[in-house]
Specification:
The complex is a heterodimer of chains A (260) and B (271). Chain A is an all-alpha fold and 260 residues long. Chain A is built from 9 helices and no strands. The longest helix of chain A has 39 residues. Chain B is built from 10 helices and 10 strands. In chain B, the strands form 2 sheets. Chain B has a 6-stranded mixed sheet with strand order 6-7-8-3-9-10, with helices on both faces. Classes of the chains: A mainly alpha (260), B alpha/beta (271). Chains A and B meet through α5 of A and α2, β6 and α3 of B.
Chain lengths: 260, 271
């Protein structure tokens, strides 16, 4: 029994300590962002590796998610003779929910894990320590550019995901199942609201970009500098990001659309 | 004993340093000094905290007690900016080299110059080539770190460490895992750089022969204490069984070959 409480106490203490370290890390990173703006080249390189290199996975996934939405939506809507509204259903699902959430999950798996592994290995091979000894702050040179790149890339990737998804729905709905093309686009245009749907979706994806970059970079920076430590940190990045994304999505949806 | 350390020419002084990791005391109230212009070796078996000592001197770790002074500044009371200014004058050679893996050899050596100076591109190029020439790797300037052998990586790291013309260099296990040729090269380089650039060098190592051949003064650490100090001759003739075992590499002595265990016979037969 005593052992149980000891363990509980230890776990609680260490989680609070980690929360403290990660908050401090976030503050340091945020205050270093101005130094990235002076050197846009650092940001360019990172935008390429977290953003451009995630392009393919986001495009292909967006296409298939849109196609599935088109198919499922058509079967349900045609029961009520409402297949004309397929465009609205596909687009609303994508820009409100699936776009930000699925692309964030993919982003955490593709770019977040890579960031953690990279930073963790830089720590394990003493590169971060070496920079500190050269009087170069690794938070400014290594962490902040990656953080900003993640923050900027995420909403763009989510927008790409949604757009490609809408095209996917079009391919299936209009191209294969015979929904009227004019209805597909015009219903979407008249029903979707810029503020309520598009902007809220963008806000979600910015929030997700923020937390994924934070989790991924912190896990790498805080990793135990051994191969096992880095591998555990990478796993934690993907798992914690997924939980955080889904939990935050519920909270944000409730705040934006619900009356809870 | 003639101790050259007390001549008032100290670059670094460590007074009553205590540092622990968890329950374990790495340093227990040790004091030592590093003289300007000399090569001082810190020796001791693996796990005695030799690397930790370098990180304490560089201000990357904080001691529990004690004062570390580098060139008149109390390292752990400096503000962040002052600490960084001091670090620009301290070079450090990590055991792994710690080269940035996404930059070429040339860019690695140029990195501190680009970050800390506003020199023109051509000036930086000239300086980098000079530093690389000094370590014999000018021809390797376009290689990536993963194309270098361990010894070459260390020499590139050394070129990077001297890029800003520091007053001192700390070497963390520079001889470990090197083939005889790169070992000889490194020994010669450390000695030559120290003499020609008028540096102060601290070499942390457990490679006795190589270290003795270049060190001016040696401290031997064990279990958190300084167990011996002196010039290489003095250390070799020191009347301490422990130091003798360490310097000559005897398998048994004050440090036992066997890890403490229950009686052998009992262990085998009383099961």
């Amino acid at each position: 029994m005593t052992q149980f409480f000891q363990k509980l106490g230890n776990t609680t203490l260490s989680s609070f300590a980690k929360l403290g370290r990660s908050s401090f890390f976030l503050l340091q990173t945020l205050s270093a962002i101005s130094s990235v703006l002076i050197r846009p080249r650092l940001l360019n390189n990172q935008l390429y590796s977290v953003g451009v290199l995630s392009f393919l996975i986001i495009t292909i996934s967006g296409l298939f998610v849109g196609m599935v939405l088109g198919l499922q939506g058509f079967y349900i809507l045609s029961d009520f003779g409402a297949e004309e509204t397929l465009g609205v259903m596909v687009a609303a699902s994508l820009v409100r929910e699936l776009g930000p959430v699925v692309s964030a999950l993919l982003f955490a798996g593709r770019a977040g894990s890579a960031l953690t592994a990279e930073i963790g290995l830089m720590k394990a091979t003493e590169q971060l320590s070496g920079m500190e000894m050269m009087a170069i702050d690794p938070i400014k040179r290594i962490i902040a550019p990656r953080f900003l790149a993640g923050l900027l890339a995420m909403p763009l990737l989510a927008a790409l995901f949604s757009s490609i998804g809408v095209l996917g729905g079009h391919i299936v709905g209009v191209g294969m199942l015979g929904v009227d093309e004019g209805a597909y686009w015009s219903q979407m245009q008249s029903t979707l609201d810029f503020q309520d749907d598009i902007i809220n979706g963008v806000i979600k994806s910015i929030v997700f970009g923020f937390v994924i970059s934070w989790i991924a970079l912190f896990e790498g920076y805080d990793a135990i500098p051994t191969s096992e430590g880095v591998s555990r940190a990478t796993t934690r990045t993907v798992v914690n990001s997924a939980f955080t994304i889904l939990g935050l999505d519920f909270i944000l949806t409730a705040l934006m659309f619900g009356d809870i | 004993m003639d101790n050259p350390v007390n001549s008032g020419n100290d670059l670094i002084s460590i007074e009553n340093l205590t540092f622990s990791r968890g329950e374990r005391k790495i340093f227990d109230d040790i004091s030592l000094t590093i003289q300007r212009g000399k090569i001082t070796a810190i020796m001791g078996p693996s796990g005695t905290g030799k690397t930790t000592l370098l990180k304490l001197i560089g201000g990357q770790l904080y001691p529990e007690q004690g004062i570390i002074t580098v060139d008149g500044s109390h390292v752990h009371q400096l503000k962040r900016n002052d600490l960084y200014t001091l670090r620009k004058r301290m070079g450090m050679l990590f055991q792994s080299g710690a080269l940035l893996t996404d930059l070429t050899v040339f860019e690695n050596v140029a990195y501190p110059l680009k970050e800390h100076t506003s020199l023109s591109k051509s000036m930086i190029r000239t300086l980098v080539l000079m530093k690389l020439q000094a370590v014999g790797l000018r021809g390797a300037k376009d290689l990536m770190p993963n194309e270098l052998s361990g010894g070459m990586a260390r020499r590139v790291a050394l070129a990077r460490a001297i890029a800003l013309d520091p007053m001192m260099i700390m070497y963390d296990e520079p001889f470990t895992g090197q083939d005889p040729i790169s070992l000889g090269t490194l020994v010669k380089l450390i000695k030559n750089l120290n003499d020609t650039l008028k540096l102060t060098s601290i070499v942390v190592s457990h490679d006795v022969e190589e270290t003795i051949s270049i060190a001016d003064y040696i401290y031997v650490l064990s279990e958190g204490k300084v167990v011996g100090e002196g010039t290489p001759e003095q250390i070799q003739n020191l009347d301490s069984e422990w130091v003798q075992q360490f310097m000559k590499g005897h398998p048994d002595g004050p440090v036992h070959f066997h890890y403490p265990a229950a009686d052998y016979n009992n262990d085998l037969f009383e099961y």
